[in-house]
Design goal:
By secondary structure, the chain is α+β, with helices and mostly antiparallel strands. About 35% of the residues lie in helices and about 30% in strands. The N and C termini lie far apart (about 45 Å).
């Protein structure tokens, strides 16, 4: 390839160089979401925009409907990253515009592009590269009180083995509230947790009260980072501070060993407040939206991806 040439191609999953991809992931701050095993579970037919010989890469999830090609952020991946040379992000984004009619993509980059609608979202991150006592001091009085209630309850923290129990409990308690999560999404979540377990990258922590499972959470661990993936608690668990106890136990187990705990989080004030009570801080990321669909589908697309 001539010096200075720029070739961006769309590479199907089966044709991606796993060695080169993994090498880039190891250098990424977003290595969990960008790992092949994670992408394979939540979007089996993913592709990648690849610049030259893996100089820069971006995983994408291109679909087709009503004659339009489009790219939407999949469930369970909060944000994507440019692997490799991050300065090539704009070139990759221009290629995505050429290949699709519209997209909505969450990214951990800074970009100033008037050709896109740019929104901000947040999640919460707790630094763990310190001793547990220092982290505990950042807990709110509410969390500390919940931990004392948990001790009084005589409930037991457990390491669970069956991730299907989490999904079953979540569907029973939250299924109606999260109606956008369909059977296919639960199937992919199940695959994700099983993939993580198969490479010893998961923590499935539960709370049992008199033998009954009252709360359960799944965390992903990789490259010195922890990610809270999904959890659920019933009314008995809430009354004894079960979720606070689970998070505290995971934090206690991994301080000084891991860099951070990513709480996930969202713009939901209730979720953000729970996370911040452990000392977690807000971290921003971008959501880029682009719509070049033709009339009369343009208005429908705007509604679908949230463009006013």
């Amino acid at each position: 390839m001539p010096e200075g040439s720029r070739e961006i191609r769309i590479v199907s999953r089966k044709d991606i160089s796993e060695v080169k991809w993994d090498s880039l992931v190891q250098k990424s701050e977003n290595s969990i979401f960008m790992s092949r095993w994670y992408l394979d579970a939540v979007m089996p037919d993913w592709k990648a925009l690849v610049l030259n010989d893996y100089q820069a890469c971006l995983p994408v999830f291109i679909s087709r409907k009503y004659g339009l090609k489009y790219c939407l952020q999949p469930l369970f991946i909060r944000e994507c990253s440019v692997l490799g040379d991050e300065s090539k992000f704009q070139e990759l984004l221009n290629k995505l515009k050429d290949e699709t009619s519209f997209f909505s993509l969450a990214m951990d980059v800074n970009v100033n592009d008037k050709n896109h609608i740019i929104e901000h979202s947040i999640h919460q991150l707790l630094p763990l590269n310190q001793d547990y006592e220092s982290v505990y001091k950042m807990y709110s009085q509410n969390v500390k009180r919940s931990l004392r209630d948990f001790i009084k309850s005589k409930a037991e923290l457990t390491d669970e083995q069956d991730s299907a129990v989490l999904i079953k409990m979540f569907r029973e308690l939250k299924g109606k509230q999260f109606s956008h999560i369909d059977d296919e999404a639960y199937f992919r979540l199940s695959n994700l947790m099983m993939n993580a377990h198969s490479i010893n990258a998961s923590i499935l922590r539960g709370v049992r009260l008199n033998g009954e499972l009252v709360a359960i959470c799944c965390f992903i661990r990789q490259d010195g980072k922890l990610l809270y993936l999904k959890g659920i608690v019933n009314s008995k668990g809430r009354n004894i501070g079960a979720m606070q106890a689970i998070f505290d136990s995971v934090i206690k187990d991994h301080t000084n060993e891991y860099k951070s705990l990513d709480f996930g989080g969202s713009n939901d004030e209730g979720l953000a407040l729970f996370n911040k009570k452990f000392g977690a801080i807000d971290r921003k990321y971008l959501i880029l939206k682009y719509n070049a669909a033709f009339w009369p589908l343009r208005r429908l697309v705007n509604s679908k991806i949230g463009i006013q």
